[in-house]
Design brief:
By secondary structure, the chain is of the alpha+beta class. It contains 16 helices and 17 strands.
Length: 655
C-alpha cells in the first residue's frame, strides 16, 4: 500500500488551537513553557491583514465624511446670492482709521482740521479775508461738541445735504489747482464719525448773502447707500450776512501739547497770516490769532493735465470722454503746453494725422499715441496754479511763533513730479530760547495745512535726516535729526499733494520732491553756517581782547621799568595794537546776519531773507571795547560789579 502524506493544518487553525490550549491550561493552573514567537512569515501575514483592515476602515470613514460634506457644499448660485455692493460710506465706517480717526484725541483734531481747511478754502476762493471762530466744549467725560463758523460765501441750499452727507462729493477732486481739500471726504467723514459714536447728526447753518435766508439742516449719513439722511430742514434768522456754521458732537479726548488742536491752530496761523482765528478750548481759555496782513494770497489758476503726467489708461479714458472730434484738437484742448507744432509731431510719431477722427483711435493706436507723448519734448506745465507762502511770510510766521535768534527762508523754483507742478519752501530758526540739547523740531506743511502725524513716513522728514548738518556746523548723529537749538520748517505746494493715505498726514516719498526739499534745506543751512562761524569768530576775538586787556597794564609798567620810557605811552601803543589785531570783535551783525562794516569800511550786501533778533539769554552781542582814542571803555561795566579790574580767578573768555 502506498504511504499517504498527512495534510498540514492551516496556520489559522493551528494558532486558534494553541490559544485554546493555553487558555485551558491557565484555567487548570498548569504552568506551561513560554510559547515560541511567531515566525517572520506569520508576522508578515498578520501585518498585512491588519493594514488591510485599517485601510478599509479609513476608506469607510472618508466616504462617510465626503457624504456629509457634499450635503453641506455651497453652490455657485448660493455664493452669487451673497454678493452685494459695498458703499464707500460703509467701507470707511468700518475703516475709519484710514481717515484719521484712529483714536479719540486724533478724532477731535481731524474734525477741527477738516472744518477749518474747508472754511479757509471757501474764503480764499471768494476773495474774502477769513475770520474763523472755533469752539470746542466738553459735554461729558468723553464727549465733545465742536463748532466752527466762518465768514465765507456760504453754501447753496440744495448743495448742503450733498456736501455734508455724502462721501467723495466735492468740487476739488477733478481740478488741477492748489487747494487744501482734495478728495471730498473730510467734513462728511467727521459727521459720520460723530453719528457713529454719539448717534447725533451734524448741524449746519449757511447763508449766501444778506438778502437771502439762512438754512438750518441736521444731516446724518446713510452708510449703506452713501447718501444724506435729512433729519431737520428749516429757515432761520442769523445776525451775520454770509458764511457757514457747523456743529458736530463726537466721542473724543482733549489734551494740550504737541499733535493737538492748539498746535494745529498755532501752525495754521503761521502760514495763513491773512486769517483771523478765534479759538475757545474745552477749558474755557480763549485765544485770538490776529490777522498779520490784509493781503490775500494770489489766486491759483486751474490748469489742464500735462502729457508727461498721465498713464495709458487715463489717455484712453480721455479719448472716450472728450468733446473734440479730431486728434489734433483733442491734444491741444485736453492737455497743457501742447502747441499745434507739438501736436503735429506727436501725431506723426504715432502714425496718425491731426485730422484723424478721435472715434477711429483703437487701443493699439492709443498706445502709440501715448508713447509718442512721453517721448516728445514738451514745455513744463505752468506754475501759476501754485501759490507759495513766500520767504517774507515764512519769516514773519517764524518770528511770531518761534523765539529764536537767527531766521532764514528760501523758496525753490517750481519743479515737476508725474507731470504735476510743485514748489518747495524752507525756513530755519536757530538759537535764542530754543533748547540746545534736543533734536531739531520739524514743522511740515502741505498746501498751507499743518501735518502733525506720521512724521517718519514723510519725505520732508527723510530729506532733513539725509542732509549732512555737520557740514554746516550743526551736530547730528548718523541717521537722525540734527541736535541743537534748531527749528526746520518746510512747505510743499502743489496742484495734487501725493499723501500716503486718505488721512493726509504725510507726503509720499517721490525722488523729485525729496531732492527739492534737500536743496532748499542746504540753501538755508549755508546761511546758518555763515552766521554760526561769524558769531564764533567774533567771540574768539573778544576772548583774545579780554586777555590783552588783562595783561597790558602790567606789561606796560614792566616795559617802562626796563626801558625807561613813559608807561602811559607804552600803554597807548599796546592798546592800539590790541585794537588792530582784534578788530573783528567790534564788528556787529545787522538784522540780516551781515557785518555792518568791513575792515575797509565797505558794507556787506544784505540778505533780505535772513533776520537776526537778539533774545534775552541768547548769545552775547559784540560790543565796542574801545573808544575813539583806543582806550578801554570801563563805564560799560556794571556799577555794582565790585572792582573794575578782573579777579585773578576768573576764567578766560568769561564776560
Amino acid at each position: 500500500m502506498a504511504e499517504t502524506t498527512p495534510t498540514r493544518p492551516a496556520p489559522d487553525r493551528l494558532r486558534k488551537a494553541q490559544l485554546d490550549f493555553d487558555f485551558a491550561a491557565r484555567e487548570s493552573g498548569v504552568m506551561l513553557a513560554e510559547p515560541k514567537p511567531p515566525s517572520l512569515e506569520q508576522r508578515g501575514e498578520t501585518a498585512t491583514r491588519q493594514e488591510a483592515a485599517a485601510g478599509e476602515q479609513k476608506t469607510s470613514v472618508q466616504r462617510s465624511r465626503l457624504g456629509k460634506r457634499s450635503e453641506k457644499a455651497v453652490t455657485a448660485e448660493k455664493l452669487a446670492a451673497q454678493q452685494r455692493e459695498i458703499s464707500v460710506s460703509e467701507f470707511f465706517a468700518k475703516n475709519r482709521h484710514l481717515l484719521g480717526f484712529d483714536n479719540k484725541r486724533k478724532a477731535l483734531l481731524t474734525t477741527v482740521k477738516e472744518a477749518v481747511d474747508n472754511s479757509l478754502d471757501a474764503c480764499e476762493e471768494a476773495r474774502i479775508l477769513p475770520a474763523l471762530r472755533i469752539e470746542v466744549a466738553q459735554v461729558t467725560e468723553e464727549r465733545f461738541r465742536v463748532v466752527v463758523q466762518d465768514n465765507g460765501p456760504g453754501i447753496v441750499k440744495t448743495q448742503i445735504p450733498l456736501i455734508f452727507g455724502k462721501l467723495l462729493y466735492g468740487s476739488k477732486f477733478h481740478r488741477l489747482k492748489m487747494c487744501r481739500g482734495q478728495q471730498g471726504i473730510g467734513i462728511s467723514a467727521a459727521g459720520m464719525y460723530g453719528l457713529i459714536t454719539t448717534g447725533k447728526p451734524m448741524s449746519i447753518i449757511s447763508r449766501t448773502s444778506s438778502r437771502a435766508k439762512a438754512h438750518h439742516y441736521r444731516i446724518a449719513i446713510d452708510t449703506k447707500k452713501n447718501r444724506p439722511d435729512i433729519a431737520h430742514d428749516e429757515e432761520v434768522e442769523v445776525d451775520w450776512p454770509h458764511g457757514t456754521w457747523i456743529e458736530i458732537e463726537l466721542a473724543a479726548n482733549y489734551a494740550k501739547g504737541r499733535q493737538g488742536i492748539d498746535e494745529y491752530l498755532e501752525q495754521t496761523a503761521i502760514v495763513n497770516a491773512h486769517a483771523e482765528i478765534e479759538y475757545v478750548n474745552p477749558l474755557g481759555e480763549r485765544r485770538r490769532f490776529e490777522r498779520a496782513t490784509d493781503l490775500l494770497p494770489e489766486e491759483p489758476r486751474e490748469i489742464k493735465p500735462h502729457p508727461h503726467g498721465i498713464e495709458l489708461g487715463v489717455l484712453m479714458k480721455m479719448l472716450k470722454e472728450t468733446e473734440a472730434q479730431k486728434v489734433g484738437g483733442f491734444l491741444q484742448k485736453e492737455f497743457s503746453r501742447v502747441s499745434p507744432s507739438v501736436s503735429k509731431s506727436v501725431c506723426a510719431a504715432a502714425g496718425v494725422t491731426p485730422l484723424t477722427w478721435v472715434k477711429q483711435i483703437d487701443s493699439q493706436t492709443s498706445e502709440r499715441l501715448y508713447n509718442a507723448l512721453q517721448k516728445a519734448r514738451i514745455m513744463a506745465p505752468s506754475t501759476d496754479c501754485v501759490a507759495p507762502i513766500g520767504a517774507e511770510q515764512i519769516l514773519a510766521g517764524l518770528l511770531k511763533g518761534v523765539k529764536a535768534e537767527f531766521y532764514t527762508a528760501a523758496t525753490r523754483n517750481p519743479a515737476i513730479y508725474r507731470g504735476n507742478p510743485f514748489q518747495v519752501e524752507v525756513g530755519l530758526a536757530y538759537g535764542g530760547d530754543l533748547p540746545g540739547d534736543e533734536q531739531a523740531r520739524v514743522i511740515r506743511f502741505a498746501n498751507r495745512v499743518p501735518l502733525l502725524y506720521q512724521q517718519s513716513h514723510c519725505t520732508i522728514y527723510k530729506a532733513v535726516v539725509e542732509t549732512n548738518w555737520r557740514a554746516y556746523s550743526v551736530q547730528q548723529s548718523g541717521g537722525a535729526l540734527p541736535t541743537g537749538p534748531l527749528v526746520v520748517m518746510a512747505h510743499f505746494a502743489s496742484v495734487w499733494v501725493p499723501f500716503t493715505s486718505e488721512s493726509k498726514e504725510a507726503i509720499a516719498d517721490y525722488d523729485e520732491i525729496r531732492k527739492e526739499v534737500g536743496l532748499g534745506l542746504k540753501e538755508c543751512a549755508r546761511k546758518l553756517q555763515v552766521f554760526i562761524r561769524r558769531r564764533k569768530r567774533t567771540e574768539r576775538e573778544g576772548e583774545r581782547r579780554s586777555i590783552f586787556l588783562r595783561y597790558i597794564p602790567e606789561v606796560s609798567r614792566s616795559l617802562s621799568a626796563v626801558t625807561g620810557q613813559s608807561a602811559k605811552r607804552l600803554h597807548d601803543q599796546l592798546m592800539h595794537i590790541a585794537h588792530t589785531r582784534t578788530e573783528l570783535a567790534d564788528r556787529e551783525l545787522d538784522e540780516h546776519g551781515q557785518f555792518v562794516k568791513g575792515k575797509s569800511g565797505n558794507v556787506d550786501r544784505p540778505d533780505a531773507n535772513t533776520i537776526i533778533v537778539e533774545r534775552d539769554g541768547g548769545e552775547a552781542v559784540p560790543v565796542e571795547l574801545f573808544d575813539d582814542d583806543h582806550r578801554p571803555i570801563e563805564e560799560r561795566r556794571p556799577a555794582n560789579g565790585g572792582n573794575r579790574k578782573r579777579s585773578k580767578g576768573r576764567k578766560r573768555g568769561r564776560r
